Amino acid sequence: MRFRLFLVLFLFLSLNLYSVPQKMLAAAYKNKTIQRPTIVLDAGHGGRDQGAKIKYPYLEEKRLTLSAVLYTKKYLEQLGYKVVLTRAKDYFVPLKKRVSLANSNNAEIFVSIHFNSCPNKIAHGIEVYYFNSQENKIRARNSMNLANCILSDVIKKTQAKSRGVKRGQFCVVRETNMPAILLEAGFLTNPQERDNIRKKLYLEKISLGVANGIESFIKKYS
Ligand SMILES: [Zn+2]
Fold first, then answer.
1. From the first residue on, what is the mean pLDDT of each consecutive set of 10 residues in the chain (222 residues)?
2. Which stretches does DSSP call E strand in 44-122?
3. Which of 29, 82, 91, 98 has a CA-to-CA distance to 48 between 20 and 30 Å?
4. Could you tell me the distance, in angstroms and rounded to a whole number, from the CA of residue 80 to the centre of ligand 1?
5. How far apart are the CA of 128 and the centre of ligand 1, in A?
6. pTM across the whole model
7. CA–CA gap between residue 112 and residue 185 (Å, rounded)
8. Residue 119, preceding peptide bond in cis (omega within 30° of 0)
9. What's the 116 CA to ligand 1 centre distance in angstroms?
């Protein structure tokens, strides 16, 4: 019995010890005495590069990625992060330019948002890619952790099917210097998923999931 009391007291004290620095940190962020990390958000495609296109109902991937990125920016700024966008409107940005934007802004995290398509209309769900660099294993591991955090929070918010975290060679995740991921936030070719993605509320859920995932990655690994 005495041991149990001791255990409860120990747990209480250790939880409090943990929460005090967390509270101080939150207050410091709020008062801007600590600069929160810079996040680069990349809306896939743009301008003449429309990305995946659906005729009925008419949908262009480049517009959906931009909406999702703008919502994500709003949520991240509410959490106190500095956000840099590779594009804030509908124009073409070469992949190399997106990479140099991230590398020159000393960004701590890079997130690219896309939507998927597949000749098989049954394919659905959300997946996240990272580059498994052999030269920089620390960045590879950080990118994988970031991918897991974002996927888990996006699935939690959207209730979509998880297709897992995958290794990819996309230029924007391969050439950037910081932990970087590319989110494929659902299939425009799947009728049910497409109906969800067309709704503002669902895009907001994806974006909130991305922002929460970034926050949980930073809390857990930095
Ligand atoms: Zn795309």
1. 54 48 53 76 98 94 98 97 97 97 94 98 98 95 98 98 98 97 98 97 98 96 84
2. 53-54, 59-60, 82-85, 109-116
3. 82
4. 28
5. 12
6. 0.85
7. 10
8. no
9. 6
